[in-house]
């Protein structure tokens, strides 16, 4: 009997990575899943990564690991580049003849287009995080076999309880804080389990190039907060409306809505908007 092919999932301790791992039995039956956390493999240790790759010979690498908090990237650009670009470059090179799936972000765009971004739109990141993702995309796409999945805000239940946008809001409310949420900054939020299912389908179909995977509903941060608040009335959630025009931190793109028609044409299910998904998944932890 032939051995099951191996799939590596980096960043398996994060939100999307953990959803890819937990959904593999249903989405990728017959695959041997290797969930890699930092404790399992330090991705900045190039020699250790090469040796493990040589030993296990994964047929697919789903690369979720990243320094994803934009303020941290802004404060330490060198670390952001090491984790988001250099690590990605090494993995993509090792997997030159395999399938390599890289997770990118809607924040590669400047948010000034005024309509949903499609895969062929030019990138123009405003933040260090967006810059590192755009640079990593170029490296990955140099190999026509590889796949870039650009996504938006992901929500759900992460192993550490602090990776999803919903978890950040919950933690603020649990601490008695009143977060300020923009009424004029728009994203296309999505449940991470949906992102994971879509990614498995695209990967196993052999899709390559860039695909946008996000929710089908354009929502302001304030609207997102209202939806999350509706799931946790016991916390007595409160938040204040504010404008991105008054923000004094690093530049923020006002509208990075993603058009997902290309991915939708490959998927066996519709990508839902967040409002509809929450209505249909009342028992989900969110």
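Q: What amino acid sequence fits the structure above?
A:
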């Amino acid at each position: 009997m032939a051995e099951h092919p191996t799939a590596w999932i980096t960043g398996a301790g994060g939100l999307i990575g953990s959803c890819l791992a937990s959904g593999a039995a249903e989405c990728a039956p017959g695959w041997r899943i290797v969930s890699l956390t930092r404790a399992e493999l330090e991705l900045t240790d190039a020699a250790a990564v090469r040796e493990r790759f040589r030993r296990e010979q994964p047929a697919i690498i789903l690369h979720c690991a990243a320094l994803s908090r934009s303020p941290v990237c802004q404060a330490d650009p060198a670390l952001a580049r090491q984790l988001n670009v250099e690590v990605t470059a090494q993995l993509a090179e090792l997997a030159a003849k395999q399938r390599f799936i890289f997770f990118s972000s809607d924040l590669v765009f400047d948010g000034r287009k005024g309509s949903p971004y499609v895969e062929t739109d030019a990138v123009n990141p405003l933040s260090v995080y967006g810059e590192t993702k755009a640079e990593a995309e170029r490296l990955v796409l140099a190999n026509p076999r590889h796949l870039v999945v650009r996504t938006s805000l992901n929500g759900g239940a992460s192993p550490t309880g602090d990776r999803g946008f919903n978890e950040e809001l919950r933690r603020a409310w649990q601490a008695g804080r009143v977060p300020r949420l923009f009424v004029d900054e728009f994203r296309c939020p999505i449940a991470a389990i949906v992102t994971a299912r879509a990614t498995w389908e695209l990967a196993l179909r052999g899709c390559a190039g860039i695909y946008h995977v996000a929710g089908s509903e354009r929502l302001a941060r304030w609207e997102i907060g209202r939806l999350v608040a509706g799931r946790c009335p016991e916390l007595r959630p409160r938040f204040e409306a504010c404008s991105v025009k008054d923000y004094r931190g690093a530049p923020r793109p006002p509208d990075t809505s993603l058009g997902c028609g290309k991915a939708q044409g490959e998927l066996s299910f519709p990508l839902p908007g967040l409002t509809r998904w929450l209505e249909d998944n009342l028992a989900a932890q969110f």
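Q: And what stands out in the fold?
A: The mean pLDDT is 96.
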